[in-house]
Design a protein that fits this description.
Chain lengths: ~750, ~220
């Protein structure tokens, strides 16, 4: 057998492909000869961190991934969860961090495109999207440019594709100065009996290429995304792909139409490492070989080499195995949508991955080993040390009203309207709750009462202080946000963003965060059904804050019994459900300390998972029985900020009574976990409320009456009254004035 | 009442529009694919919103030159009704069925939010569900909705009662001249507007202010 081998494989070339010497030795051992240049490219694509999860696999395996509603857990293009009535929600979250820093518009746009494709590849029509975005310090010179480009890119792709963006996160911290994070989430609806998978079946069947043509864009993208950044970052721009939402929209319609014809046996989108990853995955999963003839691949430019075609990350492409007798019908669908359709290969029975180019065999590799034999590391790690607790007397004082106004108008809490108004939040006509509340909610089209809630959460500063508690908190916060609408949290996707795993302290963060996530998912019956890992988020040796983003989905049986965050009416009782005896106690890692006093010390707040579960289940019951008139969970900025958000969302004020024996700063700005504000339209002296308290007490939940809604002001105990209009002006003001170059 | 919705590749509010027409009239509109040779025999042709041909070249420019648009033009010349929403409005302008131009929003950003619309002329089949001067809520979602026309054209539009809707109460989201949100052709049988009344027709949308456009229109033609 002669393989084209024009380019000599040197140690430098191997290193440039991101392969370590021991990994290269493994390749030599596996194939018994020196690989061709194309083969080296294939190995680098399959064995990089992004595609192989080689540093995280050992730990990811520990996550709970099953449950009575889980149809498909991790390992496919997206997770699939049963929502009843023969329907399923198909969802995943994926990062596009590195490309979005190099070229913010296209990086973010193709991140959205990639996740949408993951969802419709499985036969689901996308119905909701979210984006968790993290940027450097507001006053860093690149931040505005990145915010502006990323937000425009997310909108540019999602709006044109036609999916409502219903939620997300935007956060700033200097630790993202050199590496911003773009975590894109998408969810789609499918019939449970029409889910499509990537596993090929049957020998000698056509492998068909669909969608856009292959160009040179993105060659080596996955390898780039598995390396740290240095000062040469600008030179990496050519590795970023360019998105075309118009083609993606046609690809969606064509794929869904094609799937109805019964022609599709297996389907895989071409994402990271394009043709290589998709072909190997389809073959390896089905215990089949794949033979590709690259001369049949539709190309955008002439004279592309086999190496470039195999590693191109051109967007909006799909690979399918089709029933041969239905090939003509399938072709007609794609021609109608004016998309490329080409039979580029066939399935074989010899478990080899063969690539032909200009009549020569340029690669011939064992297909199973390409995936299964990817290196897996048990990287050394050291357990993180938790910061020392704050002294009991260490409560820096500030006037409560001043502090609240500053926090509400600061970068952490300020309204994200500037961002989400650039996203189409209502297309498809099913958006019940748009961004700005606890979770985005859509109704399930074709069903009278059913709704789905979506939330994306993580508190990176907690994860930095204590990755284990932070991991737990990310899951609990997501579960809590879904619960606060009245939804039953079903399952989640995780997008784990960390620094360089080859550093033991970073690996320690990963190990502990995954442990925390796993424990929380188990305790809350909230399995992880899909996910993505993004490592090497470092620039010049400095890593990001550990950021394991959790994207969750919840089910509302009847959206008429759904809670929103705005106060519903005046003269309603405000309950703080899940409160500790002193309402709030924990100031460590709070935004009160960080944003008002420049302090990042103290331990992260503890999440009591059993209490979390009981409290959430109780709150959900209050919402579904119609007793709760509004609901909001407490997070950044504690009770004070949560009350302000409920008031601002409705224009209705509230008066809250101080606890006399607790420091007001702790009461109003402590970030204790597992708490909700619930308003009820009940007589404070009446029997119904007494019954509610009795039930709470039986469950071990403290739900004190802390105040009453009404008026135009928010009055926090003895602090001066704050007009809701003033709070709103501060809250709405920060983002636009920041982007105009005024605030920082 | 018979209506048809034309679908060009890249449009994405066709499903929203079909749902609105179906919910309000009780009958689903016919869907026309842009390559179909003929229009069905209907009273109302609707071109919904989205990003036909990816907004490449110029919003609506490519779809406007599609052969089916000759049929739409003929339908309008016969007095048939044509409604274009958002990208549909852009296509009608590019096709010469409505005057003026829709430029990039002054913010240079896509904008999706709720605005207030004032009904400027309620004396047409499209707007008879409203009363003159009535202000109602309506969402917008667009990048290029900044209406522009030369002085003479603008004067004619205003003078001939051809401004259908105006952004009210300071909610102009795009910098449109005279706060114009929607306009008629001379015969007032063609209406183009940027906002999306189809996304505010039922309780689940948080209101039904947009419904009167469809109920007024469909009731008349039934």
């Amino acid at each position: 057998m002669t393989l084209r081998n024009d380019i000599e494989i040197t140690a430098e070339l191997v290193a440039e492909h991101g392969l370590k010497p021991d990994e290269y030795s493994k390749i030599l051992e596996l194939i018994g000869r020196v690989p061709t240049y194309t083969e080296l490219g294939i190995f680098s694509a399959m064995w990089n961190e992004h595609c192989s999860y080689k540093s995280s696999k050992k730990w990811l395996k520990t996550l709970p991934t099953t449950g009575p509603r889980v149809i498909q857990g991790p390992g496919e293009n997206a997770g699939v969860v049963d929502i009843g009535d023969g329907q399923a929600i198909v969802f995943k979250m994926e990062s596009h961090n590195h490309p979005s820093f190099i070229e913010p518009y296209q990086g973010a746009a193709t991140g959205v495109g990639g996740i949408l494709r993951d969802v419709f590849t499985m036969g689901a029509r996308p119905v909701a999207a979210m984006n968790a975005l993290r940027f450097g310090a507001p006053d860093h010179e690149k931040t505005r440019h990145l915010v502006s480009g990323v937000v425009a890119g997310v909108g540019g792709y999602g709006n044109a594709f036609g999916v409502p963006t219903v939620g997300g996160e935007v956060e700033f911290d200097e630790r993202y100065n050199g590496n911003n994070l773009v975590n894109a989430f998408a969810a789609g609806l499918a019939d449970t009996d029409k889910i499509f998978y990537s596993k090929a079946e049957g020998v000698g069947l056509p492998v068909v290429y669909l969608g856009a043509k292959t160009g040179r864009d993105g060659v080596g993208g996955a390898t780039m995304a598995s390396a740290e950044f240095g000062d040469d970052i600008e030179e990496k721009r050519p590795t970023v792909q360019v998105g075309d939402p118009f083609t993606e929209k046609r690809l969606l319609e064509a794929c869904l139409e094609l799937m109805q014809t019964g022609a599709v046996i297996a389907i895989q989108d071409m994402g990271a490492a394009g043709l290589t990853c998709s072909a190997v995955e389809m073959g390896a999963k089905g215990d089949l070989g794949i033979e590709l003839d690259l001369d049949k691949v539709p190309v955008r430019e002439a004279q592309m080499t086999a190496y470039e075609m195999m590693l191109s990350e051109s967007q909006e492409r799909m690979l399918m195995v089709l029933h041969p007798e239905k090939e003509a019908a399938a072709r007609a669908v794609f021609e109608k949508w004016e998309l490329d359709f080409a039979t580029v290969g066939k399935t074989t029975d010899d478990l080899r991955f063969r690539v032909m180019w200009q009549g020569e065999e340029v690669a011939n590799l064992p297909i199973k080993e390409l995936g299964d034999e990817a290196p897996e590391y048990d990287r050394p790690w050291i357990a993180p040390t938790a910061p020392a607790p704050l002294a009991v007397t260490d409560v820096p004082q500030m006037d409560v009203a001043d502090a609240l106004l500053k926090l509400v108008g600061g970068h952490q809490v300020a309204s994200r309207r500037w961002v989400y108004e650039q996203y189409d939040t209502l297309i498809q006509g099913n958006s019940l709750q748009r961004p700005g509340g606890d979770a985005g909610v859509i109704r399930v089209e074709g069903h009278e009462t059913k709704g789905l809630a979506f939330s994306s959460d993580v508190t990176p500063r907690y994860c930095e202080a204590d990755p284990y508690e932070g991991g737990k908190q990310a899951v609990a916060e997501c579960w809590r946000n879904l619960t606060a609408t009245g939804a039953e949290p079903l399952a989640a996707t995780d997008n784990l963003n960390f620094g360089n795993p080859e550093r033991p302290e970073i690996m320690g963060q990963i190990v502990h965060a995954i442990k925390g996530i796993g424990e929380a998912c188990l305790a809350l019956d909230f399995p992880i059904v899909s996910g993505n890992v993004s490592l090497y988020n470092e620039t010049n040796g400095r890593g990001i804050l550990p950021t394991p983003t959790i994207g969750g989905v919840g089910l509302l049986p009847d959206w008429n019994q759904m809670a929103r965050i705005g106060f519903a009416a005046a003269n309603e009782v405000i309950l703080l459900v899940g409160a500790p005896a002193n309402r709030g106690t924990h100031l460590g890692q709070s935004i009160y300390l960080r944003d008002l006093f420049g302090r990042k010390d103290g331990p992260a707040p503890h999440v009591d998972l059993a209490h979390e579960r009981r409290t959430g289940d109780f709150v959900r019951k209050l919402i579904r029985s119609g007793i709760a008139t509004a609901c909001h969970d407490l997070s950044d900025g504690g009770l004070g900020v949560a009350l302000a958000e409920m008031a601002m969302a409705s224009g209705i004020g509230a008066t809250v009574t101080d606890l006399t024996d607790q420091n007001p700063v702790l009461q109003y700005f402590g970030e204790d976990q597992g708490r909700y504000l619930v308003t009820v339209n009940l007589d404070p002296q009446g029997e119904a409320l007494a019954d509610l308290w009795k039930e709470a007490e039986t469950l071990g939940i403290f739900a004190p009456w802390i105040g009453t809604t009404g008026g135009m002001d928010l009055v926090l105990g003895s602090a001066r009254a704050l007009p809701v209009a003033d709070l709103k002006a501060a809250h709405e003001g920060w983002f636009p004035s920041y982007m105009d170059g005024v605030a920082a | 009442m018979k209506s048809a919705v034309i679908v060009f590749p890249g449009l994405n509010r066709d499903r929203d529009m079909i749902a609105a027409l179906t919910k309000v009239s009780g009958t689903a509109p016919t869907t026309v694919w842009h390559q179909d040779a003929d229009l069905p025999n209907v009273d109302l042709i609707v071109i919904p919103g989205g990003f036909s041909y990816g907004d490449y070249l110029r919003c609506g420019a490519i779809a406007a030159r599609s052969p089916i648009m000759d049929k739409v033009r003929a339908h309008a010349e016969r007095g048939g009704k044509v409604l274009g929403v958002c990208n549909g409005f852009q296509i009608l302008i590019e096709a010469g069925l409505l005057p003026g131009a829709l430029m990039r929003n002054t913010s240079l950003k896509f904008v999706c939010r709720e605005v207030k619309l004032e009904v400027v002329n309620a004396d047409t089949d499209f707007t008879r569900g409203y009363t003159k001067g009535e202000v109602f809520r309506c969402p917008v979602a667009h990048h290029d909705g900044n209406y522009f026309a030369d002085g003479d054209t603008l004067a004619r539009l205003e003078g001939e009662g051809r401004v259908a809707f105006r952004y009210a109460e300071g909610t102009n989201p795009n910098g449109s001249l005279n706060d114009i949100a929607g306009i008629f052709n001379e015969g007032k049988n063609v209406l183009g507007l940027m906002p999306h009344p189809e996304n505010l027709i039922e309780a689940a949308h948080g209101g039904d202010d947009g419904r009167a456009l469809f109920s007024g229109l469909l009731g008349k033609a039934a």
